[in-house]
Specification:
Rossmann fold, alpha/beta, 14 helices, 2 domains, 380 residues, elongated, 6-stranded parallel sheet, binds ligand GMT
Length: 380
């Protein structure tokens, strides 16, 4: 198939999923065209069967707000026509589904049918989509899509309840490449001393440091852990809450035990160095960061929110707490880190969960089958 993919290329899990999906589909022989405002950050740009098309947004002085969504629609229609795309797959409803709808309409005037699929990732429904200024257009874009997928059952229910959407929504959960996200003991032995001394536990957090991730709870939890046992914390990512987290770590006297490494390319290698992940988010429609860690044998201490229980079974492959329960999360982390047999059991179960349910090799065929179904449908 020839598939156009649009996503936010620079930040967030939706861009990661879209990019990894494109890479996996290309490896299975499909022709993939990324149509985005910059090159997706996990794309090397040299992959076979993948092309990247930048969306140019001209900033005419009259435009206080350059109309990106219109430039995107134009580019989608151009690329679809030039490369005879079979369909568009857009990630994150706003504004991508509306741009795709315009592209479909533009091509329809020339007798070409270009179906599009919208994948809902979370904040497009739970935060942005609920904003009154975006809600009607979000609902419209979803209803007009030829196909809609959501990354968890929870998100599908939220979409139905919050937006009053009744149409069919297919649940296709997040995935991870289990060959790439794997613990390599040699690499761990070589690289772990960069972040932790022998005898120290290594905890990790990975996010875009937005308020919804509650990074201050990560620091508060870790402060309690490091009072109980020798430990260090690896903070991967960057975003608006980073400096507040850095100041809090200093104020709590643990600044020298917390390593803020910023945005990283090879998160798979860094995750695999760690013992335990902290993901105390206010909301996660799925929790891709935890899945990536689990594939590397790193269980997560997380909050019981959104779609997280579809990934983490409390006490089996991780531990779940209420939002803000830093005392509970610290106690849980201490109990795991001070009991090697328990850590081993949770690590093994984490990897098994990733392997049995969420490997790319299981999830990508679900997308392929869904594409086939949408292509077989009558044009809207
Ligand atoms: O929260 C983020 O990391 C960004 C956000 C996005 O839309 O880019 O992530 C959402 O999509 C991820 C991939 O599908 C999910 O794993 C995250 O749980 C989800 N984030 C939220 O719901 C807050």
């Amino acid at each position: 198939m020839k598939i156009g993919i649009t996503c936010y290329p620079t930040y967030g899990g939706s861009g990661v999923v879209a990019t990894e999906l494109g890479i996996e589909l290309a490896a299975r022989g499909h022709e993939i065209h990324f149509i985005t405002y910059s090159q997706p950050f996990r794309l090397a740009g040299r992959e076979a069967n993948i092309r990247y098309h930048e969306v140019p947004v001209s900033n005419y002085p009259l435009f206080e707000y350059p109309p990106y969504d219109l430039a995107l629609a134009t580019r989608m229609a151009e690329v679809a026509e030039l490369h005879s795309l079979d369909l568009l797959h857009v990630h994150y409803a706003i504004p991508h589904s509306v741009s795709a709808l315009l592209a479909r309409q533009m091509l329809a005037t020339r007798g070409r049918h270009l179906p599009f699929i919208t994948t809902l990732h979370g904040t497009d429904i739970t935060l942005v989509g609920l904003d009154r200024s975006y809600l009607p257009i979000t609902k419209f874009g979803i209803n007009e899509s030829d196909g809609v997928t959501a990354i968890s059952s929870h998100l599908r229910e939220r979409t139905r309840e919050n937006l009053g959407i009744t149409r069919e929504i297919e649940v296709i959960r997040n995935f991870v490449n289990c060959d790439f996200y794997v613990r390599n003991p040699e690499l761990v032995a070589q690289q772990r001393p960069r972040f932790a001394k022998p005898g120290e536990s290594l905890l990790v957090h990975l996010s875009n440091f937005r308020p919804v991730k509650r990074v201050l709870d990560v620091i508060e939890t870790f402060a309690r852990v490091s009072r109980a046992l020798p430990a260090r914390l690896l903070m991967i990512g960057d975003g608006p809450e980073r400096s507040a987290a850095e100041f809090l770590a200093m104020r709590l006297g643990i600044g020298d035990r917390v390593d803020f490494v910023g945005k990283q390319e090879n998160v798979n290698e860094l995750l695999a160095l760690s013992d335990l992940m902290l993901m105390p988010s206010e909301m996660e429609s799925f929790g891709l960061a935890a899945l990536e860690a689990m594939a590397c044998r790193v269980p997560a201490i997380a909050t019981r929110v959104g779609g997280v229980p579809e990934l983490i079974e409390d006490g089996v492959n991780g531990l779940l707490y209420e939002i803000g329960d830093v005392e509970g999360m610290a106690a849980g982390a201490i109990s795991i880190l001070s009991d090697p047999a328990l850590l081993e059991r949770l690590s093994t179960a984490s990897r098994r969960t990733a392997q049995d349910h969420f490997c790319a090799s299981r999830i990508i065929p679900l997308y392929e089958q869904y594409y086939e179904r949408i292509l077989a449908q009558d044009p809207r």
